[in-house]
Design brief:
The protein has about 325 residues and is an alpha/beta fold. It contains ten helices and 14 strands. Strands 3-2-1-4-5-6-12-13-14 form a nine-stranded mixed sheet, sandwiched between helices. A three-stranded antiparallel sheet has the order 7-10-11. The protein has a two-stranded antiparallel sheet with strand order 8-9. The longest helix has 22 residues. The protein is globular, with a radius of gyration of 20 Å. About 5% of the residues have low confidence.
């Protein structure tokens, strides 16, 4: 159950936002969309929440109800995040729900950003990390099966993203499997930028780039079909740079960011998650990279994996290239 303090603050915020819209541009009369963000007291979520409310996800007319979801120890921090959202006076923010359990957090949710996950600690084996996160995502999946919208669209950001996504999808019964995706848009964006820097180009000049596989150092940034300002990318870069610098830099960019700034890449991860979800909802003819569930028919990849492929999007669905 939510604490009485959180419930009271949520009600006051709803009244505040309703009065605020009197002085703002008229929003759509469509019902508000509920957007859940887990790990909501953390740094990545912090960079996501304000972009959702500043119209960069669902546009300039869609009202939003934010669900801030985190563990019980973060309850006080959640109220602080909610207070800052109040202070931004976002015209399209209807209300904020603070939740410290999945049932409250995912009730009637339309979109979910799964940011929260247990990080790998000192001396922790990968198997330990998978076990601990597996238990978390089993519980979240069961809660979504019980209370989330049947067409809820979900991106898993928290690592190991592919495995967490697969576990979540398996336990969120009643929601289509294609509605669960793992983020490789961050890796895609990193690859675009490295190509742009190398060729003195704009990222918007670069088309048909793809990330294959798992969000890990085994992923493969593929430029075989890529063009830069209309020219084949392979005619503008050399194999030595591609093999020795480009590919390993994209694969290990997260570790490089940690080494450079002493913290993980929170802002770029949050930005990539918005890119992923915006294009999923609004559609894009540009190639994107998304981790989706395999059925055995896609490029001879075995069935039953969450695997990154090049896709486009339209009508709220991803289409495999």
């Amino acid at each position: 159950m939510l604490s009485k303090n959180l419930q009271a603050m949520s009600k006051r915020q709803a009244l505040f936002t309703q009065s605020l819209r009197t002085f703002s541009a008229e929003p759509s009369n469509a019902p508000p969309k509920r957007v859940a963000v887990t790990g909501a007291a953390g740094n990545i979520a912090y960079s996501i929440l304000y972009r959702i409310d500043s119209e960069e996800f669902l546009g300039k007319n869609q009202r939003v109800i934010l669900h801030l979801v985190d563990l019980p120890f973060a309850e006080k921090a959640l109220t602080g995040v909610m207070a800052e959202l109040h202070d931004c006076a976002f015209p399209l923010l209807d209300s904020v729900v603070c939740a410290t359990n999945p049932t409250d957090g995912f009730r009637d949710v339309d979109y979910a950003f799964m940011v929260g996950a247990k990080p790998r600690g000192p001396g922790m084996e990968r198997a330990d990390l998978l076990k601990d996160n597996g238990q978390i995502f089993v519980g979240v999946g069961k809660a979504m099966a019980d209370v989330a919208k049947r067409d809820c669209k979900t991106i898993v950001v928290g690592n190991p993203a592919n495995t967490n996504c697969l576990i979540l999808q398996n336990h969120a019964k009643g929601i289509p499997s294609e509605n669960f995706t793992a983020m490789t848009r961050l890796d895609h964006n990193r690859a675009l930028t490295q190509l742009a820097l190398k060729t003195n180009s704009k990222v918007t000049d670069i088309k048909k780039m793809a990330i294959w596989g798992n969000h890990s150092p085994t992923m493969y940034p593929d430029v075989r079909n890529t063009t830069i300002a209309g020219k084949p990318a392979l005619s503008l870069i050399d194999d030595d740079w591609k093999i020795k610098e480009f590919t390993p830099r994209v694969q290990k960019r997260g570790a490089e960011i940690i080494e450079l700034r002493g913290a993980s890449s929170a802002a770029s991860a949050g930005s990539a998650s918005i890119d992923h979800m915006r294009d999923w909802v609004s559609g894009s003819n540009e190639w994107q990279s998304v981790g989706i569930l395999t059925d055995g028919s896609q490029y001879n990849v075995p069935a039953g994996l969450i695997f990154s492929f090049p896709v486009t999007s339209s009508n709220g669905k991803f289409q495999l290239v």
